[in-house]
What does this fold into?
Amino acid sequence: MLSLDGVVLAGGASRRMGQPKADLLWAPGLTLLDHATAVLRRATRGTIWISREAGAPRLSAAILPDRYPNRGPLAGIETVFHHAASDLVLVLAVDLPLVPAEWYLTAYSTWQAEPALDVVYAVSEFGRPQPLVALWHRRTQPLLDARLQSPKPPRVMEVLASLRRKSLPLGEDALTNVNTPEEWQRLAQRTRL
It folds into this structure.
């Protein structure tokens, strides 16, 4: 088990879903937010933060409003570095419920072998990157801060391209993203939610 802090990115508007994704029920009495927090909790004993504007803390995690509201997921990552005790932070978007906790252990081993890396992130077997399943290093915070101050919200992939990074494979199923009611229904049918 790691001793790093983690952040669940749960602050999106969920426009396509039509309701907050974080509040969808993953299992009886367990929301998608609870589930994502539990995934990180299985990977680390560090503090788990939740990047979102409001809500009651869940499963021993603290709510952390973004320093740059409505600027996308990078704002949540940037904000957590102002609170995290660790230089590396585990990152998990709330709408990626099939990511296994074990991936973070492999990502950390990769970073230990190459500590100059800024980001170690997941990539599907088809080459689809997912930088919101990742380890981000604190040294990215100044760049994130500068990009978040620009008039246009920064794009995650553009920021990632400017960093020292390495991708690690994770199965396409594990990177299933749920953004719409249809995607949620397909996932529910596959996993028998």
Q: What stands out?
A: The chain has six helices and nine strands. The chain has one domain: 5-191. The mean pLDDT is 91.
